[in-house]
Design brief:
292 residues, alpha+beta, 5-stranded antiparallel beta sheet, 12 strands
């Protein structure tokens, strides 16, 4: 498993990937998931991968040999759309060559790719490419892509990122997204590759490999957890069984009787003298615990 995220902004692109490969709890290793295709002044493209490692390696190798992709090359593609088509063709070529053999060994053909960058004369563009070789492009309404173990890092991006977000703010957000994923899933791991691309530069602007000693990422890990806890503690507790005219932090009111779905006990064990205890407020529950 892995986690990669790429964000398209008005000011450029942000790419972040981990490097964990995992074939079981005792088969953990490191393989970098980010590959750069750079011809300064002409084009800069980044390819990130998740899924079966042998498939993604085969795709990258094919991209280096135009004969394997019908004579077309990402080095000569006239647009990012054409470059995405070429990557998709490489995925389909690997499928035609290897999918049947993989299936015979019970292995699914599983690969996900993100391609982003800029070719001279075009704007920055970002694509997600699927196992079938088809792809979609990021738009202002959905300006980022994730592949791999995406669910843990998605909420912070959804709440923070807009096309107008600065590159540094987006890089910070991506690192927090990665930290949330690292915290919740051991199949994602350090070191990380972070690449920042400023639009129209047509070359890598900033790049860093982040390990457990990186000062900024250590600060992110410590500060984010502390700030989350502080915000959580500052949110008021809910009010149960509030008066009908109450307006603050009301979770339930005496005017509306809510009941759970109950399975009645058999007559042979039913306690006919007992009735469900009334719901208590959190404050009443806390006082009861303190008394006992």
């Amino acid at each position: 498993m892995t986690y990669c995220v790429a964000i398209r902004l008005d000011s450029g692109l942000v790419f972040l990937s981990d490097s964990r490969t995992n074939a079981g709890v005792d088969q953990v290793s490191t393989f970098r998931k980010m590959t750069v295709f750079e011809n300064p002044g002409d084009r800069m493209m980044v390819l990130m991968s998740a899924g079966n490692l042998s498939i993604s390696q085969s795709v990258r190798q094919m991209l280096g040999h135009p004969s394997a992709t019908g004579g077309r090359s990402i080095w000569t593609a006239s647009s990012m759309d054409e470059a995405a088509q070429i990557v998709g063709e490489a995925v389909r070529a690997v499928y035609e060559r290897d999918a049947r053999s993989l299936r015979e060994f019970g292995i699914d053909f599983n690969v996900s790719l993100i391609l982003g960058g800029q070719i001279n004369g075009e704007r920055c563009r970002l694509f997600q490419i699927y196992s079938a070789g088809n792809f979609i492009e990021a738009q202002n309404e959905a300006s980022y892509f994730q592949i791999g173990e995406a669910k843990y890092g998605k909420p912070i991006i959804d709440r923070v990122i807009t096309p107008a977000t600065s590159l540094d703010e987006a890089a910070k957000c991506a690192l927090i997204s990665m930290d949330s994923t690292l915290k919740s899933n051991v199949s994602v791991g350090l070191p990380l590759d972070l690449l920042i691309y400023e639009k129209d530069s047509l070359a890598v602007t900033r790049f860093v490999t982040i390990d457990e000693k990186n000062q900024y990422f250590r600060m992110i890990r410590d500060t984010w957890g502390q700030q989350l806890k502080r915000v959580f503690e500052n949110i008021d507790d809910p009010v149960w069984n509030a008066a009908p005219d109450a307006q603050v932090n009301v979770l339930s009111t005496t005017a509306v009787r809510n009941q759970p779905v109950r399975i009645p006990p058999p007559q042979s064990v039913a306690n006919t003298d007992a009735h469900p205890a009334p719901l208590q407020t959190l404050a009443q529950q806390n006082r009861s615990r303190q008394q006992h």
